[in-house]
């Protein structure tokens, strides 16, 4: 397995798909990385030479925020919203959906199980 940005990327996947295992890299970003580094997109991760893998690593390190750095930034953004008491921050604090979804009948993954809140059985 190739190790890129602290993540073990599976050898049997094509390069574009394998790069999406890294948090912060989706399909379009992976396609851009492959084009910029000049790697054949039909190759699998296991077929890449050490030089090609290092060029991918260098591109990601210099141009993108991924994994821990990105998670930290997202966490700080949410914390800032909660501190300034804006609507989205309030919804994060109270463990409710932040993007306008209805909560009367849905939002179970965010609010918890139905048995905890509701009518008790006799």
List keywords for this structure.
2 domains, 30s ribosomal protein s13, domain 2, mainly alpha, two-stranded antiparallel sheet, elongated, 122 residues
Notes on the protein architecture:
It is a single chain. The chain has a two-stranded antiparallel ribbon. It is built from six helices and two strands, in the order ββαααααα. The mean pLDDT is 90. Helix 2 crosses helix 3 and helix 4 packs across helix 5. It is mainly alpha-helical and 122 residues long. A hairpin with a 2-residue loop joins strand 1 and strand 2. It has two domains: 66 residues, Helicase, Ruva Protein, domain 3; 44 residues, Ribosomal protein S13/S18, C-terminal domain (30s ribosomal protein s13, domain 2). The radius of gyration is 21 Å and the shape is elongated.
Structure summary:
By secondary structure, the protein is mainly alpha-helical.
The CATH class designation of the largest domain is Mainly Alpha
Report the sheet with the most strands, covering strand number, pairing sense and barrel closure.
Answer: 2 strands, antiparallel
Number of helices in the DSSP assignment: 6
How would you state the average pLDDT, rounded? 90
Number of domains: 2
Radius of gyration: 21 Å
Low-confidence spans: none
Report helical residue fraction: 40-55%
Architecture (CATH level 2) name of the largest domain: Orthogonal Bundle
Order of helices and strands: EEHHHHHH
Helix/strand/pairing category = mainly alpha
Q: Note the overall shape.
A: elongated
CATH fold description of the largest domain: Helicase, Ruva Protein, domain 3
Termini separation: 56 Å
Number of strands: 2
Strand arrangement, largest sheet?
1-2
Instruction: Provide the β-strand percentage band.
Output: under 5%
Biased composition (Basic residues): 101-122
GO molecular function: rRNA binding; structural constituent of ribosome; tRNA binding
GO cellular component, one term: cytosol
Region (Disordered): 93-122
